[in-house]
């Protein structure tokens, strides 16, 4: 289904029906208190109430809060409002948010990331603010070596296409991007997002496992980036419910130590990159970072230089 912000406002509802739903939904959100946060670092009531307001903004076409206030002040609850969803669907969606802990981004069908609005749905990892730093690092690298701007860039495990699109916007009129993913759902969603930003001539979305779709470009890649699975398998069950229950395990589970895909990328990156190429990837924190820096320097001698770690927002 299309995300709400792209749907036509083919429904209508009255102010009174909408306010009744909003009051019910807000009461449910308030009843949560800090219980989700205490349980698994989930959202508290204040965040849920903000999500509720964002949902209204997405669903109501040309939403103007003052219109509602005026209707209430005039005691005219039957004022008609255009909507992108039926009120009964709103009840169902908010129950899913509260009872199933379904991620808000899957409910509205999108996530705001950098200056992008990316469509997402079940089966695709929701892009995180922390991952934005990868695009920032690419921008820094290009500013120091303009030659990188004209080369081929690769986003491995692209998911929604977030990193690939972010890099393509930095490249401007130069260079190109290949975005790969093993998941057919991710390929479909990434392709949709690429087309929404009119970047289909800039970004090639290719289905396959990690480096498999890159046959023929060995040694020609200017930059290779990834946000791979890095959660240890036995840590998935302890994640926030929104993540552990709903986001794709394929994009989360990095094997027994969380290192399987990270090591695979390190082992394969050197053969893909051209001399002075750029390589950046996200990890699960300091312990993994230290291990991988040591691995790249000592187990893959001569393959990488200027190996650094950077802290993100998390």
TrEMBL record:
InterPro entries: DNA_methylase_N6_adenine_CS (IPR002052), HemK-like (IPR004556), RF_glutamine_MTase_cyano (IPR052663), SAM-dependent_MTases_sf (IPR029063)
Entries under PROSITE patterns matching the protein: N6_MTASE
Phosphoprotein among keywords: no
Keywords, comma-separated and alphabetical: Methyltransferase, S-adenosyl-L-methionine, Transferase
One GO biological process term: methylation
GO terms for MF: nucleic acid binding; protein methyltransferase activity
Keyword Iron-sulfur attributed: no
SUPFAM superfamilies: S-adenosyl-L-methionine-dependent methyltransferases
Name the record gives this protein: Uncharacterized protein
Organism the protein comes from: Eucalyptus grandis (Flooded gum)
């Amino acid at each position: 289904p299309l995300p709400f912000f792209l749907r036509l406002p083919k429904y209508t509802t009255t102010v009174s029906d909408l306010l009744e739903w909003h009051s019910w939904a807000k009461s449910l959100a308030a009843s949560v208190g800090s219980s989700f946060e205490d349980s698994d670092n989930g959202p508290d009531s204040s965040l849920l109430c903000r999500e509720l307001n964002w949902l209204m903004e997405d669903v109501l076409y040309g939403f103007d809060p003052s219109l509602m206030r005026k209707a209430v002040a005039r005691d005219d609850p039957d004022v008609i409002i255009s909507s992108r969803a039926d009120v009964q669907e709103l009840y169902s969606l908010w129950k899913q948010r509260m009872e199933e802990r379904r991620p808000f981004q899957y409910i509205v069908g999108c996530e705001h990331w950098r200056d992008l609005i990316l469509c997402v749905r079940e089966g695709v990892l929701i892009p995180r603010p922390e991952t934005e730093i990868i695009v920032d690092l690419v921008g820094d690298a290009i500013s120091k070596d303009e030659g990188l701007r004209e080369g081929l860039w690769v986003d491995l495990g692209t998911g929604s296409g977030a990193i690939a699109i972010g890099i393509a916007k930095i490249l401007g009129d130069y260079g190109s991007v290949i975005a790969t993913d093993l998941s057919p759902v991710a390929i479909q969603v990434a392709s949709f997002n690429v087309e929404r930003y009119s970047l289909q001539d800039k970004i090639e979305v290719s289905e396959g496992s990690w480096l498999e779709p890159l046959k023929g470009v060995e040694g020609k890649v200017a930059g290779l980036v990834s946000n791979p699975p890095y959660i240890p398998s036995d840590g998935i069950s302890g994640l926030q419910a929104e993540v552990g229950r709903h986001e794709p395990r394929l994009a989360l589970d990095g094997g027994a130590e969380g290192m399987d895909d990270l090591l695979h990328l390190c082992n394969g990156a050197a053969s893909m990159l051209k001399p002075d190429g750029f390589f950046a990837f996200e990890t699960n924190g300091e312990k993994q970072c230290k291990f991988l820096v040591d691995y790249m320097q000592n187990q893959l001698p001569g393959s990488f230089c200027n190996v650094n770690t950077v802290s993100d927002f998390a």
